[in-house]
Amino acid sequence: MKISTKGRYAIRLMIDLAEHNNGEFITLMDIAERQEISEKYLESIVSILSKNSLLVSLRGKGGGYKLARDPEDYTVGSILRLTEGSLSPVSCLEGEVNNCERSSYCQTLKMWEGLGKLINDYFDGITIADLAKKDKYIDNYVI
After folding, report:
1. pLDDT tens readout for residues 106-125
2. 58: phi then psi, degrees, rounded to nearest 5
3. Can you count the helices (H) and strands (E) in the chain?
4. CA-to-CA distance for 4 and 83, rounded, in angstroms?
5. Do residues 3 and 84 touch, judged by C-beta distance below 8 A?
6. What is the DSSP letter of 100?
7. Integer Cα distance of 1 and 93 in angstroms
8. How far apart are CA 16 and CA 84, in angstroms?
9. Which of 26, 36, 102, 113 is deepest in the core (most CB within 10 A)?
10. Please, are residues 88 and 131 in contact by the beta-carbon 8 Å criterion?
């Protein structure tokens, strides 16, 4: 599993919105400038996040984006699954049902399931509020 720039930038965008959350809409231009990310690329990311009700958007003068909920309500896992798709380490675990013809006798399946659980539990245990904190420590791990 490799997290793409889309997933990484989505997390940075959400942290930026949390850090600058004063109740007002924040322009994409301001976020792009602070994060040193192309505004055009951020447009594709906010589109995904807005369509899935993570962001509130307002067009026109005074418009921009803001979080739809408190930063504590967003996990890194939920953001990555929206932008990256499955976080599964192997393709046979990507769907709800494992359709692999070898699954009934696969000697490595439990290992991959365990890794998938570790990945999902780890990312689901970190919120945007955690990342926006200045000390950058979560469960004894430096972020």
Report:
1. 999 999 999 999 999 999 99
2. -140, 125
3. 6, 4
4. 9
5. yes
6. -
7. 12
8. 20
9. 26
10. no
